[in-house]
Amino acid sequence: MSTIRRLRRRPDFLAAAGGRRFHTERLSAQGRLREPDEERDGARAEGLFLGFTITKRVGHATERNRIRRRLRSALVLVADDAPEIGADVVVIARRPALDAPFESLVEDLRRALRTVTRPPGPKPAGAKPAHSPDRPNPVRGPRRGRNRAAGPSPLPVSMAPDGSTDG
């Protein structure tokens, strides 16, 4: 049986947001694999750390607490199947988790833990990352923002006869 401990510190929640993701109608999960020598509270961090996030947009406090209790109960059933790996996982609950059948919550949580804690596969030899700095993102085009060279605006601005712009 895998021991699942609580994720408590904000930096750990934020770090998990940079890892793999899993989404269903009832919840989303974000997770990252920890380095083997990472520490928590002065001791070596071992096993799975899990935290719940349930925003106010989901509902009032009683509804959010009910969702949290349902997810904790589902986690007790999933703990036996949880992977034996050092990872941080954040589960973000959605409104449908309040009325969803309990079995679907258990299955969603089981699938989420499997997905976000899966070790990375081997990279093919000579493969480049999907979005390297020397190759722009094919979907969004070149990056724009503070780091671009100063110069005229790349977007044309139409001028009215009185000199005002349309923007």
UniProtKB/TrEMBL annotation:
Q: Which PANTHER family match?
A: RIBONUCLEASE P PROTEIN COMPONENT
The protein's organism comes out as Methylorubrum suomiense
The identity of this protein, by name, is Ribonuclease P protein component
Gene, per the UniProt record: rnpA
- PROSITE patterns under this entry? RIBONUCLEASE_P (PS00648)
- Its job: RNaseP catalyzes the removal of the 5'-leader sequence from pre-tRNA to produce the mature 5'-terminus. It can also cleave other RNA substrates such as 4.5S RNA. The protein component plays an auxiliary but essential role in vivo by binding to the 5'-leader sequence and broadening the substrate specificity of the ribozyme.
Key words, A-Z: Endonuclease, Hydrolase, Nuclease, RNA-binding, tRNA processing
Family matches, as InterPro entries: Ribosomal_Su5_D2-typ_SF, Ribsml_uS5_D2-typ_fold_subgr, RNase_P, RNase_P_CS
Instruction: Report the catalytic activity.
Output: Endonucleolytic cleavage of RNA, removing 5'-extranucleotides from tRNA precursor
UniProt xrefs under Pfam families: Ribonuclease_P
UniProt family annotation:
Belongs to the RnpA family.
Q: What are the start and end residues of every segment in region (Disordered)?
A: 115-167
Q: What class of enzyme is it?
A: hydrolase
E.C. number, please? Answer: 3.1.26.5
Note the subunit structure: Consists of a catalytic RNA component (M1 or rnpB) and a protein subunit.
